[in-house]
Amino acid sequence: MADDFTAVLPANAWNWAAVWRRNYLAWRKVALASILGSLADPIISLFALGTGLGLMVGRVEGTSYIAFLAAGMVATSAMVASTFETIYAAFSRMHDRRIWEAILYTQLTLGDIVLGELAWAATKAFLAGTAIAAVAAALGYAAWPSVLYVLPVIGLTGFAFASLAMIVTSLSPSYDYFVFYQTLVITPMMFLSGAVFPLTQLPGGLQRVARFLPLAHSIDLIRPAMLDRPAAGIGLHIGALCIYAVLPFFLSMALFRRRLMR
Amino acid sequence: MSKVAIEFAGVKKSFGNKLVVNGVSFTVASGECFGLLGPNGAGKSTLARMVLGMTRPDAGKVTVLGVPMPARGRLARKGIGVVPQFDNLDLEFTVRENLLVFGRYFGMSTRAIEAIIPSLLEFARLESKAHARVADLSGGMKRRLTLARALINDPQLLVMDEPTTGLDPHARHLIWERLRFLLARGKTIILTTHFMEEAERLCDRLCVLDHGCNIAEGSPHALIEEHIGCPVIEIFGGNPQELSSLIRPYVQRVEVSGETVFCYAPDPEQVRAQLRGRSGLRFLQRPPNLEDVFLRLTGLELEK
Questions:
Q1: Which of A74, A216, B12, B47 is an S-S bond match for B59, by CB 3.0 to 4.6 Å?
Q2: Looking at the partner chain, which of B54, B72, B93 has a beta carbon nearest the beta carbon of A104?
Q3: A102 and B CB contact within 8 Å
Q4: Burial class (CB in 10 A: 0-12, 13-18, 19+), B217
Q5: pLDDT at A2
Q6: How many domains, in total, are found in chain B?
Q7: Phi/psi of residue B142, each to 5°?
């Protein structure tokens, strides 16, 4: 049995790139629509909430509300982009279109496929998050050049959320179950991680919960970089995101093996 | 190079409490076309997946291209091409892009893939369709593209799960012709089918499967000789039960399937003599085929 699990692990350090390139080629055909679609929502939220609510709340943690919110929106859009890519698009490739099955006929392993899908979802998260950060920087809501530090964090955030969503994809019998993950995990996480208001506004119990949420770790890295402030606990936050990226990856491989290679 | 391409030894597999493969053993030699023949649900596709290392047997041993499956599946799959039962081409891509993307899964460079795409398209008779979207191809063209895709890594062994199911006769004959071309070039083919004609035309040897068991094995000709060995008369248009009791004394064996009476008659003239003068009957006298073997062995008629 242990032998068999080794057989589904990524075969080497580069096989996954073939899967990434397949998704990139498909995306390139619809790139413009995809970019506009994934940017419109967070940018509208940023300006609507930032200016509208900003008028009422004034300054938050020593900065304008829209600058405070911009960091939250960068992390949230990375979370949403990689989650949706994994639960809808990767599920469709795995389940409806049997594209994974075709790949399993080749010398790629299940682990190579999952890793390629994660890398692709992280790439889309990187594009989405980076675009918001660029808009924020252009409008003076993010400090230059310290905003550059957020780029690797956006990628890591995308990887962690893709990895978590991969578990949901591996377990779900159909698309109908994804809405539970969205409404019970992803949306609450946005409100519990300090994306739209400071964590100090939460009751003590929820603040302790927030310490374990991947989005909170991501925001704790992104916000100081965008506001050019010293960040605390960088190692801890990066470590937590890495754990969220790696452990679900292995778990989802085991679950996919049970699902696809009975 | 090893003379044995595939070896199954005492392989068993259940899903839940349903036994789908029950102690199957067979050997496929290099360069041979081997058929797994049986009705839907006989376990053919499960055996095909085991050849690819995508399903692990509960008991028994599977060896493909000299390595144990599924443990060394990745190594074996480098030398295998697959034509699955259901097309899983990438509908978002053109014909050419499908081949390009698939070649990369084998670690081939873009340049190496582009160098062989023209010959693959020529083989699949899709030269004029290189830039067509897969979604716009006919069923027969999709099958041929799947076959071309299976050849991209220049495999020694082709695994085909019902390669012509769902195709019209013309498309089917074209696939058969292409497969014979591959066999002539020394490829090994294992195919599952429930078309007796397909098995008879293509396979050097085959095993007949029923309920997960290998119930007969041999060349199509030898199986027909062994189990039937005489001409067959099909009679339609009368009361099958009445007809069969009337002619039973004059034939080796008689079977009724649906509204057809199958007479296995070493002396067909005697049967005709018995039924002379009866109106409304139609006769078809023909050499025996695999369908008769299957009917004989299982008491079932395969769907055509």
A1: B12
A2: B54
A3: yes
A4: middle
A5: 59
A6: 2
A7: -60, -45
For B110-120, what is the mean pLDDT?
A: 97
Does B235 lie in the same domain as B218? Answer: no
Of A3, A99, A107, the CB nearest to B107: A107
What pLDDT digit, counting tens, does each position of A116-144 carry?
999 999 999 999 999 999 999 999 999 98
**B220-227 vs B290-298: helix crossing angle, rounded to 10:** 50
The residue among B209, B225, B241 that closes a domain is B225
Contact list, A19 vs chain B (CB under 8 Å): 105
Give me the residues of B, 128-157, that contact A with CB < 8 A. Answer: 150, 153
Backbone torsion region of residue B108, taken as left when φ is above 0, otherwise alpha when ψ lies between -120 and 50, otherwise beta: beta
Dump pLDDT digits (tens) for B192-245. Answer: 998 888 999 999 999 999 999 999 999 999 999 999 989 999 988 888 888 888
- Top pLDDT among A3 and A127 is at A127
Strand partners, B9: B61
Model's pTM, two decimal places? 0.92
Looking at the structure, tell me whether residues B281 and B136 fall in a common domain: no
pLDDT, tens digit (0-9, with 9 covering 90-100), for A189-245: 999 999 999 999 999 999 999 999 999 999 999 999 999 999 889 999 999 999 999
B157 with B5: CB under 8 angstroms?
yes
What integer is the mean pLDDT of B271-290?
A: 86
Q: Which helix (H) or strand (E) holds B243?
A: helix B240-247
Write out the DSSP string of chain A: -HHHHHHHS-SSSSTHHHHHHHHHHHHHTTHHHHHHHHHHHHHHHHHHHHHHHHHHH-EETTEEHHHHHHHHHHHHHHHHHHHHIIIIIIHIIIIIS-HHHHHHTTT--HHHHHHHHHHHHHHHHHHHHHHHHHHHHHTTSS-TTGGGGHHHHHHHHHHHHHHHHHHHHHH-SSGGGHHHHIIIIIHHHHHHTTSSS-GGGS-HHHHHHHTT-HHHHHHHHHHHHHHT---S-HHHHHHHHHHHHHHHHHHHHHHHHHHH--
**Measured between CA atoms, how close is B299 to chain A, in angstroms?**
31
Instruction: Say if B234 falls within a structural domain.
Output: yes
Whether residue B71 and residue A3 make contact (CB cut-off 8 A), yes or no, is yes
Residue B273 maps to which CATH number? Answer: 3.30.70.330
Neighbour count for residue A212 (Cβ, 10 Å): 11
Owning domain of residue B91: 4-225
Q: Is residue B301 part of a domain?
A: no
Pairing mode, strands B253-257 and B232-236: unpaired
Cross-chain Cβ contact A109/B74 below 8 Å = yes
Within B106-218, residue ranges assigned H as helices are: 110-123, 139-150, 169-184, 196-202
C-alpha to C-alpha distance for B102 and A215, rounded to whole angstroms: 36
